Amino acid sequence: MGGEGRDLGFGYLPSSFARVVDLAQLFVCAALSRFRAAGEGTAFREGRTSAGGGRDGGRATGHEGELPTSQGLAVADLTAGNGWDTLFLARAVGEGGRVWAFDLQEEAIRRTEARLREAGLLGRVTLLRADHAELARHVRGPLHAAMMNLGYLPGGDRSKTTRPPSTLRAVEEALRLLVPGGILTVVAYPGHAGGDEEAEALLALARRTPPHRARVVRSEVLGTKTRAPFLLVWEAV
Description:
CATH architecture: 3-Layer(aba) Sandwich
Region (Disordered): 45-70
Strand order of the largest sheet: 8-7-6-10-11-13-12
GO molecular function, one term: methyltransferase activity
InterPro entries: MnmM_MeTrfase (IPR010719), SAM-dependent_MTases_sf (IPR029063)
Strand content: 15-25%
CATH class: Alpha Beta
Protein name: Putative rRNA methylase
CATH topology: Rossmann fold
Helix content: 25-40%
Number of domains: 1
Distance between the termini: 37 Å
Order of helices and strands: EEHEEEEHEHEHEEHEHEE
Pfam families: rRNA_methylase
Structural class: alpha/beta
Shape: globular
Number of strands: 13
């Protein structure tokens, strides 16, 4: 991987990786700032989850069962991984906000939980060991933003990676839940095993997204020596 790098908590990342991750967070920040300025929150509830629920078991951590209805920003991290995007979202929603974070790997849930606990923000997040394609099963009501950072768990088993069928369904589910002006960011990584297929499937989905449903933006770093990751952003209409 070419280019200088820096540590974002994912380990050592080339600058092309770091920039698209940063850009995804900037898009989400801008959207949430607009909602906050307009005084738009939402009354949200989550579905009940318990050990053994969901495709690979659904565990709610931080809050079990239904949340009391409250006003605030509602967001989802559909690939919790090492917990950095989840932590970013927990800070971004502020008090009264709610984050749902999904990952199929128990190790990812443990790492994310530890990061949130250390930051004192676990109470804002529901951690779910569940397939992100089952988003609508666990989250009822609208979302203001959702994030996906695809590929494998950094520092984990590289054979366990996101797959096109589940990824595409998760994107569709998120788009159905986004309020007008809501943002979905997806960072895709061509170049690793399965990454090219997933990236092409996402681009095809982006191209066929009806303009009356969402606007789609693609951003990437050009001139890299290897196939660089790219960012897709859907803004619900």
